[in-house]
Design a protein that fits this description.
GO molecular function: ATP binding
Largest sheet: 11 strands, mixed
Organism: Aurantiacibacter xanthus
Pfam families: DUF87
Number of helices: 21
CATH topology of the largest domain: Rossmann fold
Distance between the termini: 58 Å
Helix content: 40-55%
Protein name: ATP-binding protein
Structural class: alpha/beta
Number of strands: 13
Strand content: 5-15%
Strand order of the largest sheet: 2-1-11-10-9-3-8-7-4-6-5
InterPro entries: AAA+_ATPase, ATPase_Atu1862_pred, HerA-like, HerA_central, P-loop_NTPase
CATH superfamily of the largest domain: P-loop containing nucleotide triphosphate hydrolases
Radius of gyration: 30 Å
């Protein structure tokens, strides 16, 4: 017995079915201009097959999260997790056969593309024992499999094209059946579109897209005019899972909805011209002069363990730990360095604007002069010692109480001189239970104005095991320092 679902009715009122088992083997391409009903079609397909097969939805606009309430899909907010966690979640989804919606609407476009590419690649690379059948729906597929590079970085384009090509070309043997939806066939990579054997073509107006759609449906140029005249929610279908001959389909109703704004007409307010003008200008100057409202704090990041447990429906022993940003309890401030000491001279120098951007020789000469002026003994300090002492002062170690400062200095003993100051700044914040310094503060301590150099610095510190960096796709970064966990708790 074949597993068939009804997606709508033909022009004669007869039911049009999709064979889900055949769809798993042959894949599907959906095309139509904005407003043609692509999302409605995908939603109908997902709702009707929800109890038959595992479903994975790549959702760049957050339109399909409503499936969670009615059909039990798990929503994964892509911006809340690091790349490693996204890959781990993809593996668990394959292992436990969970139906999920990867919502990417809280990310920038290139972040959406990278997140989806990592997710799809990890699903594709799952071990053979987890190759269960699954429908993988990719909405707005022209973003993830572009025909041209556009403005995205070349490495991002290669990553996402590889992931989408693997899904459509080699996914069948791994149980993955790609369903891709696009507004324009001309913008979709040909090697991705060519792998689909089933087609549902909605309204389109551009000649190049209309002709490509007609070619896929086996229609001549004159018949292609039908595609331009299709109404919203009407599609032409063809393929082994739909129909052996082109068939016109009016997509049936759905029970869940997206978050699109209403497209119908709404009555205008019944105000006179004078009343509307007064309403627009009332207290306008005061509103413009008021300070800009602060952006609301982001919602708490869902714990990785909780989501993993939901996917597995049981406690998992190897749950991935989630590090949350938090401010620790306030600690008593350390006493200031005594007057007339080397520490005080260094602290004053470090507080001066632009001090960290000066050369080491210039700083050491200024230090020696200041010590002589204040009659502070400094002859025992050479330039190498001064460099490390100045790094301590630039990082603000004098603020720490003795126990915390001793722990930080112990960790810093083997750190190279050229990266000592930023490491100490990170470690001092960790010891006080504060969030790690931002890139601007690290750049000041490091004596650099290059954001790329700071990112390379963090990569170097992580590779050497001095810090652990966690950055989610939303750009939120958490830095922890191994060895200072007791102070951060």
């Amino acid at each position: 017995m074949r597993a068939q679902i009804e997606i709508g009715q033909d022009s004669g009122g007869g039911a049009v079915h999709v064979d889900v088992e055949e769809l798993l083997a042959t894949r599907l391409l959906v095309q139509g201009n904005s407003g043609s009903g692509k999302s409605h079609l995908l939603r109908r397909l997902l709702e009707q097959s929800a109890q038959m097969v595992q479903q994975v939805v790549i959702d760049p606009e957050g339109d399909f999260v409503s499936l969670a309430k009615e059909y039990g899909h798990i929503v994964i907010e892509g911006g809340s997790y690091t790349s490693r966690e996204i890959e781990a979640l993809a593996g668990r989804i394959r292992q436990h056969r969970a139906s999920v919606v990867l919502s990417l609407d809280d990310l920038e476009v290139e972040q959406q593309i990278r997140c989806a590419a990592l997710f799809l690649t990890a699903m594709f690379d799952a071990p053979r024992e987890h190759w269960f059948p699954a429908l993988v729906v990719v909405d707005e597929a022209q973003m993830f499999a572009p025909a041209a590079a556009g403005e995205m970085a070349e490495d991002t384009r290669r990553m996402t094209l590889t992931a989408m090509t693997n899904l459509m070309c080699r996914g069948r043997k791994r149980g993955l059946a790609g369903i891709v939806a696009t507004q324009r066939l001309a913008k979709l990579a040909k090697n991705v579109a060519a792998e689909a054997s089933n087609f549902l073509m909605g309204r389109t107006f551009l000649d190049i897209d209309m002709q490509r759609a007609a070619d896929l449906l086996g229609m001549d140029r004159k018949q292609a005019e039908r595609i331009r005249d299709l109404q919203c929610g009407h599609f032409l279908g063809l393929g082994p899972a739909v129909s052996r001959k082109p068939v016109a389909v009016k997509i049936g109703s759905v029970t869940t909805g997206g978050k699109n704004a209403a497209s119908g007409l709404v009555p205008l307010p019944g105000l006179s011209t004078e009343g509307m003008e007064a309403l627009l200008h009332d207290s306008l100057a005061e509103e413009a002069a008021a300070p800009q409202p602060q952006r609301p704090a982001p919602p708490p990041r869902p714990a990785m363990e909780d989501l993993a447990d939901t996917i597995a429906h049981a406690q998992d022993d190897d749950a991935i730990p989630a590090a949350a940003d938090r401010d620790g309890p306030e600690t008593p401030a350390a006493p200031p360095p005594p007057d007339g000491s080397v520490e005080q001279v260094l602290a004053e120098m470090a507080r001066e604007e632009g001090a960290t951007f000066q050369s080491l020789a210039s700083l050491f000469r200024s230090f020696a002069i200041r010590c002589r002026e204040r009659r502070v003994p400094s002859a025992h300090i050479d330039m190498a010692q001064f460099r490390r002492l100045f790094a301590h002062a630039s990082a603000g170690l004098e603020r720490l109480d003795p126990s915390r400062r001793a722990a930080v200095e112990q960790l810093a003993q083997g750190v190279d001189d050229d990266v000592l100051a930023p490491f100490l700044a990170i470690a001092a914040a960790a010891a006080e239970g504060r969030n790690a310094p931002d890139e601007e503060e690290l750049a000041r301590v490091y004596g650099s104005s290059s954001p790329g150099r700071i990112r390379r610095l963090l990569d170097h510190l992580e590779k050497t095991g001095l810090i652990t960096v966690r950055e989610d796709f939303g750009g939120e970064r958490t830095i922890t320092v191994p060895g200072l966990e007791e102070f951060a708790s």
